[in-house]
Structure formats: C-alpha cells, structure tokens
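Lab notes, practical 5.
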Amino acid sequence: MTPVLACNGLGVGHPGRVVGSNLNVTLHAGEVLALLGPNGCGKTTWLKTMLGLLPAQAGTVHLRGRPLSEWPLAERARELAYVPQGQASTFGFTAMDMVLMGRTAHLGLIARPGEKDRAIARQALERLGIAHLAARSVHRISGGERQLVVIARALAQQPRAVLLDEPTASLDFGNQGLVMRAIRTLADEGLAVWFTTHDPNQALRCANRALLMRDGRVLAQGAVAQVMKVDTLRELYGAGVQQVTDADGGLPAFLPAFWP
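Output from the prediction step:
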C-alpha cells in the first residue's frame, strides 16, 4: 500500500543550518505516528518540511507516491492539514468561523463559504463532539475546547493526513485527554496522523508507531510497545526514567526520575 506521506534520506533545517539529516519515515492511512525528542532536536522543523513549509535540505518527500514538490500548493493544502503549537486568536471568532477557515483550501482566498462548506464545518465539529460550541467565541471556551476547534478546522480541509505539533502543550490534564481522544478518532476514521509530544505515555496509549529523535537523527522507530522502553527513553532524554505498571498489569507508564 502506498503511504500517504514518506521521506527518504531527508535533510531538514534552515538556510545555512542543518537541523536533521538522513531522516526516513512512512505514514499510512489509519495510522498514528508519535514523534518524541528533547527540545531543539528538530521535531517541528521535520514536520514543516514534510508539509512543504520549509524546503528539504536533502532527500525526498513524497505525498501519495508523488514528490511533494510536484503538487500545486492548492492541491497540497487539500491533502495535508497542520495543527501548529498553541494557537491563540486575537479576534473573537466563533468556533464555526474558525472551522470554516479550513474550507479556504477548497474555495480560494476571496470566495465566500456556501451551505456545503457550512455543512462540512458542522460535521467536523460534530465528529469531535463540540457542535454545541459552534456559536461561542473562541475566547469563551477552555484551552482544550479551543484546541479541538483548531483540529476541527483541519478536518474541514478534508485532508488525507493531519500533522500536529505538540497538540497538548499548555493544556491541563483533562483537556489533554480530550485532544488525545480526538487524535485517535481521526485515525479510526481513516486519516493518517502524525503528532509530536514530550509525553511517552501519550505515544504509548494513542500511537501505533513511535519515532524517537535526538540531535537531528533518528534514535529508534517502530511499534510503540517495542520502542517505548526505559533504556531507550533514558538515552533519548539523557535523564533518569522510571517505569510503573498499574495493579491490573496493563500498559506501563513512564515517569521522570526525580532523584538518582
């Protein structure tokens, strides 16, 4: 099966500065991939390069088997959706207004959304269980609800893949659960999903595969149960890691070691 997204020998970075090199990954429909690594290791730069927001320094990126560079920007925007870190709106848009912005990829910048676009936006809100927020200002909802609205906006693009950069950053414990549940829902409905996180427990419980990145290179990748190990996480973060297991013998949980 042709992956939705793939890169081979990819180099990522900025003019005059390489951040990551020899990066290889595939992302298939219905799959959740978690990318973990210390601050500054290149996670966001890699995502932006996969989206075409930054030019590749080396190697290739393919979208549905076709080089990303060959996709016109409008077509690319209908295939790939991006949820950046912690967006905040200056204006008091309603949740519906925000989600309708996702239809720009299909309408162009000056066209007005029609009833079909509004129906798609309503459906996106319903899929994430937040239809009741449609008329509410994004300034009058919780941080987790606002993040779900941004994810709904990505859904309104009707993409094949959604890439999310630290989607739970700055959210409280309960709102983190709302967002991670939404990510799993996207994959269950057939989308390819790639998210970055600092929490190995989110990766273990939400993702199918994990990719660990340090110092601009891939340290390990594979099925989460195989990759998410204490020794590997210690090497990834250069810090102590403790593993605990619940009384029922379910999935383990990883905690930072607070003292030697």
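Observations recorded by the TA: The two ends are 47 Å apart (CA to CA). The domain at 5-256 is CATH 3.40.50.300 (Rossmann fold).
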